Write the structure tokens for this entry.
Amino acid sequence: MKNNRVMQAVKRHRRLLLPVLLVAVALVLSGCYVEPDRIVDDSNGLTIGTEGQNFDIVITSPPVATPTPKPTEKSQQIDWADWDFGADTATNPPSGVSPTSASGTTGATAGPTAVGATATPTTATTTTDNSVLQSGSTGYAVKQLQQQLKDLGYYTGSVDGSYGSGTTQAVKDFQTANSLTADGIAGQKTQDALFSKYAIAKSDSTSGSSSSGTSTSNTYTNGKTNIYLRLGSTGDQVRILQNRLIYLGYLAGTADGIFAETTEAGVVAFQQRNSLTADGVAGPDTLVKLYSSSANKASSVVSYLGTLRVGMSGDGVRAMQKRLRDLDYYDHSVDGDFGQNTYTSVVEFQTANGLTADGVAGKTTLNKMFSGTATAGGSSSGGSSSSTASDPAVYGETATSTGYKTMSSTNSPPPANVTALQTSLSSLGYYTGSLDGQYGSGTTTAVTNYQASHGLRVTGSAGPAMQRMLYGGTSEGSYSPLRPGDTGSEVRNLQYTLYELKYYDGEITGTYDEITENAVRDFQDVNDLDIDGKAGVQTLGRLYSSAAKALESEYE
């Protein structure tokens, strides 16, 4: 009986398990289902198999994971070979194209690109980048630099984007002409000046035109010649005028676009040097000459644009010292160093002229100093001038050495001597007038041009050093050595000869002082002599010969 109950229980469990097993089998079989192929017909319905049964609703298959295909590289329709590097407006280059195909290397070598990284397109500019460009630099920025230098007449090589020796020299020349440190390195200051509208072009360019397309009669970029600039004028044309005067050596400092007394002094000096009416007004006649390739350069700076203070040195300080000396405030050597003596003189000038007596020669002080209304110092100048000292120009009228005596339009030289001078200058192409023995304007101009081309001090007077150079004078004879501390006429001759050759710029005192010693050292250096500052027999023999080299000589 017990066994019957067991058998009945098993049967009941089997009946209960059967539906469960059937459900499990159905689930397993449903996973093996494969959907038949479907073909989309013209009416956007579906035809299953070959039965042709249509459905109004399109049944889409479930999403299936597939590998992402590798992107296909798109072909470029424009590359850097088609790019306009000379565009004058900022423009984006072709996106995603390497610039090295047309401009060479960009100055840096690209490393491996990380997988999945996206390259950032490079943007071209029309000026230059902010980095320092120097020997060894390459790329588009260098090409722009070279092209601008070429446009301004400083560079004659190929615009190849390679910063070599030719580019370095062109940069140096530009820096020199634009009053920048001439190191041949195009830093930000040099690049800003180069690409500005105030950039000074090379005035002696033989290309026949400037970058602005003007003719050789007006080779200075953007300079107008049909206007009048005078005291009180301001603006771009004044700035251009000042930059040109700076380039020609009449002014020093930085152009500020304000036509004040310091600028007027430069204009007057230019007019005098170029045989124009010296009224200080830059009218058409003056401007045409100023911007021409035939404009005569200055023999020395006459005024300064800016501020001078203790510790500064150079041509600007020297010009101020000369002016203070003319006004009887300064009686020391014109050495170009702003030291204690110069400071004291500036304070005395400021006091006498109702200015703030701080010893700093700012624009107000300098403009007053170079004006026609400046109050002179007289006996209150703080020290008496030596009775034996004289201005080189004054002393030069009677200077004599090695048999040669100065000839000028004011000291009535013998006609025979003037005729000999005219004959020699005529044979060299400097004089075209008649050989009349008269030291007139034609002879003065010829002498001036000869001095300028041979690196001599430009005075218009034919001094002993010029005559020795012109006639081939020798240094035959004996000389007594001179040294620091010596005095007398021989020292005066030494000082004036050094003045003619541009080594000495002080007064003719007849005293072998420190200024004279430094001038002798410079002469010895340029003339390949032993440098000791003493005027020995060998130094004097060279100094008083036609072989003496001037400090800034352009003639060999």
Observations:
- Strands lie at 38-40, 46-48, 251-253, 303-305, 400-401, 404-405.
